[in-house]
Amino acid sequence: MLPIKNTTKRYGIVGMSLHWGMSVLILAMLAVGLYMTGLPASPLRFKLYGWHKEFGILILMLVAIRLGWRLSGVIPPLDGLPWWQKLAAHGSHLALYGFMFAMPITGWLTSSAAGFQVSFFGLFLLPDFIGPNEHWRVLLSQTHEWLGYGLIATICAHVGAALHHHFFVKDDILRRMLP
Amino acid sequence: MIKRYMSVGVLMLTLLSSSVIFAAQPQAWKIVPEQSKLTFTATQNNAPISGEFKTFTGDIHFDPAQLASSNVRIVVDMTSVDVSYKEALDALKGADWFNVKLFPQAIFKASNFTKTGDNTYQANGTLTIRDKSSPITLTFIIDEYTKTGARAHGSTMLKRAVFGVGQGEWAKTDVVKDDVEVKFTLTGSTK
User: Model pTM greater than 0.80?
Assistant: First the structure.
């Protein structure tokens, strides 16, 4: 039976759900983000921006929960890996957490700087921490975009490493994150 | 005899001048632009988005003591519309929204005023945006009223679809809601 909490051998149900659930959300967000910015002003563009912002805030909430969960439990150690692989793994995990916080926050601020307040699925309005400001809007939206490219690169490294371990090294690194 | 004609003449003059006074329009107010504001708040993706019209002029004849003969005509320069995000501003000025090239002015006319409270009033009038006119009701509060200066603020709720604001695929009201709140602060001076 799958444990709820992580053990020293594998990830538990909560950690796995957050990992795979958020990975689907994040990949969809990256795809929608790359697509919507090229659209002409239209209701579709507006709607996609709206969804992108709402789901981005959802991801911000989930990553806060995920970080808390991660810090409060154990992480299956990367025993038997060369030191540089451990370093690369920890570094990319740290980077992924950084992106998961930085992407929604810069997106939220970009929206505020554009003068578009954000509603969370019609439930409540997000506060604007900065007012409408064209200079900041441009700077923040460019930061958001470059962080997105950085995130894509890091995801590629993360997925590539997991698949490499599974298919070539044939260890249980990936299996620890599978049911 | 001459004296009698003269006194009749004086009497007639008096009547004439008093009738001129009674027929006089209520106080004419000039809008003080730097102390007046016209803003709107629409709803996109369930969140408010605001903008303003920076330029508007008007003929205001208003006196709370002469509501029946009070009348206003406000002309809004639609090219002066402003929202914080340039892309949205370009869209607003464009053909699907205000089409400011074809319809550079919006006009509000009202001559039907009702007192609804201590300082609160209602104006029933007609608003024309683009090529569509519709009756609307403004509610407003008079904050200050002296012989030489007056200030009022108020608002109204409009349906953008009534005025054809948002054509084509924008006519759907799921992304940008139909309801738009318009708020104003008017400062008037007699000079």
Answer: yes
